[in-house]
């Protein structure tokens, strides 16, 4: 927000690691040692009729790297672990 060259720009912040929702669910189950079942819902049931979503998501963070030198410091496992730790408190 303090970078003048960022004004009016769309800036992705995240990781370049690509993960599917299924992979994410399995990882959360594994890291939490959960016995929960993964339930697969059609988009219409979860979001309503006519909902469309991207098939793949992998943010391009080149712009934020160029503007302020951003590099992710925490990987997906670390982020999930921090959420787990927070809710255990």
Describe the structure.
With 89 residues, the protein is an all-alpha fold. It has a single domain, classed as Alpha-Beta Complex (UDP-galactose 4-epimerase, domain 1), CATH 3.90.25. It is built from 4 helices and no strands. It has helices at residues 21-32, 43-47, 62-68, 76-88. Helix 1 (21-32) packs across helix 4 (76-88). The longest helix is centred in the last third of the chain and has 13 residues, at 76-88. The two termini are 32 Å apart.
How is this structure best summarized?
With 89 residues, the chain is an all-alpha fold.
Biggest beta sheet summary: none
User: How many helical elements?
Assistant: 4
**Assembly state of the chains shown:** single chain
Radius of gyration: 17 Å
Q: Which sequence of SSEs, written as H and E, runs from N to C?
A: HHHH
Percentage of β-strand residues: under 5%
Tell me the span between the first and last alpha carbons: 32 Å
CATH topology heading: UDP-galactose 4-epimerase, domain 1
Can you tell me the overall shape?
extended
User: What is the CATH level 1 assignment?
Assistant: Alpha Beta
Helical percent range? 40-55%
In the CATH hierarchy, what is the architecture at level 2? Alpha-Beta Complex
Structural class: mainly alpha
The overall strand count is: 0
As for the number of domains, it is 1
**Unreliable parts:** none
| Average pLDDT, all residues | 91
